[in-house]
């Protein structure tokens, strides 16, 4: 049954393929018709959608092989969103008033197959927490590189969406010492004072090997790497015997103005990997079904108990969405970045 829907919806479109990092000049806000839902479809009025670095790859020309389709000029951007079902076609399980997550963010109203929506339920105390990137960190720390009591854990890109949760998760799983990296001294202070990081290295200020040696004199046991590049290189050199390294992201290449979003080379000392029995794995959520559901339950329990916090920035309104993507690339925010739309 269809509700009283607007005739059009504003969407963020890719205007042209950027030669480097996409900025507001590569995006445009357009109005498109809102159709009535067909069988098995729903219309969702979005309340929040995620601003995430993977869009850099999806709008570039190196997206082949990605699990999500490339975004071409004229296409709307997309990504994780939370919204309210306002109309439902026949034959589906959802009804107006249901709150769901789906992958058609970057627009006010989305036409989505009901099968592609996930009802929120009451596991998380705040709907926007469903847009956290903690599942990747949790999956890496529980499936690939299981944290052991007393481990020294190093999280690169610790002030980002994954990193701000990864350090807290590692501590809750038994880590003895948690070290992070960020290029911002101000964010380094927040990581220590707000999120309980024991030490934070700041690449670009002093040699990274020396900073890591001071932060972890005995080396690191576990790595959650969101960056790659020189930080991965330094982490391998700091790895102890039997260290477990998980590659969750590759921001150094993905967000480089000199690359095209789909590659991130790094120099790794394979002699050290062999000689010290170090394991290195890439994490993909597709390979670990069930992690998302497990994470959501534990995340909700930890949030309610106050054992974990969810650092995030809410950017108000569609008009600020194109700029929010640039702000993410420039590292202006701490934690997860979401665009918040008004209820109506």
From TrEMBL:
It holds the Pfam family ADH_zinc_N. InterPro entries: ADH-like_C, ADH_N_2, ER, GroES-like_sf, MDR_fam, NAD(P)-bd_dom_sf. Residues 23-339 form the Enoyl reductase (ER) domain. SUPFAM superfamilies: GroES-like (SSF50129), NAD(P)-binding Rossmann-fold domains (SSF51735). Keywords: Oxidoreductase. PANTHER family: PROSTAGLANDIN REDUCTASE, PROSTAGLANDIN REDUCTASE 1. This is NADP-dependent oxidoreductase. It comes from Streptomyces sp. 900105755.
């Amino acid at each position: 049954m269809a509700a009283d829907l607007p005739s059009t919806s504003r969407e963020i479109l890719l205007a042209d393929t950027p030669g480097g990092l996409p900025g507001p000049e590569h995006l445009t806000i357009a109005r498109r018709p809102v159709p009535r839902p067909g069988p098995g479809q729903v219309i969702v009025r979005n309340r929040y959608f995620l601003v995430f670095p993977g869009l850099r790859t999806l709008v570039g020309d190196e997206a082949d092989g990605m699990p999500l389709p490339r975004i071409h000029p004229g296409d709307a951007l997309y990504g994780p969103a939370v919204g309210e079902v306002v109309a439902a076609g026949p034959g589906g399980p959802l009804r107006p008033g249901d709150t769901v997550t789906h992958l058609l963010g970057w627009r006010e109203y989305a036409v989505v197959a009901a099968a592609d929506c996930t009802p929120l339920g009451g596991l998380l105390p705040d709907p926007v927490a469903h847009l956290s990137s903690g599942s990747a960190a949790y999956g890496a720390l529980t499936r690939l590189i299981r944290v052991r009591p007393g481990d020294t854990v190093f999280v690169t890109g610790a002030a980002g969406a994954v990193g701000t949760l990864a350090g807290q998760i590692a501590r809750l799983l038994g880590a003895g010492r948690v070290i992070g990296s960020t290029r911002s001294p101000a964010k380094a202070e927040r990581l220590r004072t707000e999120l309980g990081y024991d030490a934070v290295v700041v690449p670009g200020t002093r040699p990274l090997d020396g900073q890591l040696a001071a932060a972890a004199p005995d080396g690191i046991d576990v790595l959650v790497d969101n960056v790659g590049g020189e930080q991965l290189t330094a982490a391998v050199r700091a790895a102890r015997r039997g260290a477990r390294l998980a590659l969750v992201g590759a921001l150094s290449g993905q967000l480089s103005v000199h690359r095209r979003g789909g590659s991130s080379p790094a120099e790794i000392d394979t002699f050290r990997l062999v000689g010290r029995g170090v394991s290195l794995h890439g994490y993909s959520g597709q390979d670990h079904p069930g992690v998302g559901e497990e994470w959501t339950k534990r995340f909700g329990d930890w949030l309610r108990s106050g054992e974990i916090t969810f650092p995030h920035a809410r950017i108000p309104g569609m008009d600020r969405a194109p700029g929010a993507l640039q702000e993410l690339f420039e590292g202006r925010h701490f934690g997860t970045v979401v665009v918040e739309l008004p209820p109506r």
